[in-house]
Amino acid sequence: MKKVGFITLGCKVNIYESNALKCELTDRGYIVGEADSDCDCFIINTCSVTNTADSKSRKMIHKCIKMNPSAIICVMGCYAQTNDEVKEIDGIDILIGNGNKKSVVDTIDSMISGKRKEKRIDILNILETTEYEKLGVTSYDHTRAFVKIEDGCENYCTYCIIPFARGRVRCKPIDEVIEELKRITNEGYLEVVLSGIHTGRYKDHDVNFSGLVKRILDEVPKLKRLRVSSIEMNEVDDEFIALMKDHKVIANHLHLPLQSGSDVILSKMERKYDVGAYIDKVKALRSARPDISITTDVIVGFPYEGEAEFMETYNLCKDLGLSKLHVFPYSMRKGTKASLMPQIKDSEKKDRAKRLIELSNYLEEEYAKKFIGSILDIIPEQETLGGMMMGHTSNFLQVFMPKDLDKIGKLYNVKITKIENGKIYGEIL
Question: I need a surface site. Which of 63, 193, 271, 401 has the fewest CB within 10 A?
Answer without folding.
Answer: 63
